[in-house]
Amino acid sequence: MSSSLQGKHIVLGITGSIAAYKAAVLARLLIKCGAEVQIVITPAGKEFITPITLSAITSKPVISEFFSNRDGTWNSHVDLGLWADAMLVAPATAATIGKMAHGIADNMLVTTYLSARAQVFVAPAMDLDMFAHPSTTDNLEILRKRGNLIIEPASGELASHLVGKGRMEEPEKIVAVLEAFFNKKQILSGKRILITAGPTYEKIDPVRFIGNYSTGKMGVAIANELYRRGAQVDLVLGPSVEIPEEGINTVRVESAEEMLAACRKVVSWCHAAVFTAAVADYRPAERSDSKIKREQKGDMELLLKRNPDIAATLGQEKHEGQFFMGFSLETDRGLTEAKRKLEVKNFDAIVLNTLQDAGAGFGGNTNKVTLIDRSGLEDSFPLKSKTEVAADLADYLVRKLQ
Ligand code: C5P
Question: What distance in angstroms lies between residue 277's CA and the mean position of ligand 1's atoms?
């Protein structure tokens, strides 16, 4: 069977650790799997393994300096960052991990890291004291929060000899992590998924609107995650500053009516839909074309009309085999309300987030959700970053769409 690494572009970053010699084995294994490997080495890395050995393995010149030693041409870290399907830093020293965490781009490796758009993997290698130092653990936490994957030997394997903590994971296992990543990546290929996200703005006049505090972060994180796993994603996005992945078909809308119209264009072709948008329930009955002037005295009344319920409307028209997931943001009686909405909106699953839970709901980068479905599933997840919640929900959708 061919490896999921076949044809993949991997930037392999090597730093100044005694484990650098293992990077040669790593490069060879990646190439055996069919990957194209471009090595970027730090100046300290070259003290441990020579670029000649490495370039003989990858059949490409090893990059170390900002300028090529041979002809003085500039090595473009931006091009390299965009070329990469994955960047793997192995071995990663405490110094490089610190520089990556804080954007100290004083060498080609960290500069490339700052330009990389692809998934980054980091395999730390250092002695136990350095590994256990709060400075290192904090920096690794920063990388983790950013979505970088830290590859370490499983703790069980080290239990008998704690001194091994901090040693680099074996090259075979690192390659297996990358292969699993690319396998997962394509698992939704051929599936088309509609996602609504963000708030809606309902115009009162050219300068005023009715809106809500939704940022679109959760919905865009889900769209990105499903896209990275190979789905064709249609994202209908209300006013939001979030920037979805480039390959996502993003339609920007403002009002609930526009959102419904945009969804209708694609929904019948979709295998699944995820309704994360916080749609305004009402819109002004009349929209003034000119700015409404303030009255000299007295109050103002604004007549509101009910907006369409996008999820419920499309839920009633759902085809056989389509899987619809809704969201339910509650302040109280969360479970009861979520279960009611699962029924009335004809969802197959619903994700409950309760504003009573600290760190959950609008804004913020974290969320705490409970996933409920028609098979009786009621799965409560701990507080996680929205990216991690998106990965959990994507894992669930992958199971349901197979
Ligand atoms: O009824 P409630 O607004 O709490 O329902 C939340 C779910 O319904 C979410 O999935 C939301 O995206 C969807 N919804 C919608 N259109 C509306 C109101 C809610 O699609 N007008």
Answer: 7
Residue 345, annotated as binding a ligand: yes
CATH ID of 9-185, from 3.30.710.10, 3.40.50.1950, 3.10.580.10, 3.40.50.2000: 3.40.50.1950
Q: Give the angle 131-132-137 at the CA atoms, nearest 5°.
A: 80
Question: Which residues fall within 8 angstroms of residue 149, CB to CB, at 6 or more apart?
Answer: 119, 120, 121, 122, 177, 181
Output Rg (C-alpha) for the chain, integer angstroms.
Answer: 25
pTM over 0.70: no
Catalytic residue among 107, 139, 148, 212: 212
Domain covering 192-401, topology: Rossmann fold (3.40.50)
State whether the beta carbon of 196 lies less than 6 angstroms from ligand 1. yes
Per-residue confidence in pLDDT tens, the chain, 402 aa:
678 899 999 999 999 999 999 999 999 999 999 999 999 999 999 999 999 999 999 999 999 988 766 666 677 777 888 899 999 999 999 999 999 999 999 999 999 999 998 999 999 999 999 999 999 999 999 999 888 999 998 754 444 444 467 899 999 999 999 998 998 778 898 999 999 999 999 999 999 999 999 999 999 999 999 998 889 999 999 999 999 988 899 999 999 999 999 999 999 999 999 999 999 999 999 999 999 888 777 888 899 999 999 999 999 999 999 999 999 998 888 899 999 999 999 999 999 998 777 777 777 788 899 999 999 999 999 999 899 999 999 999 999 998
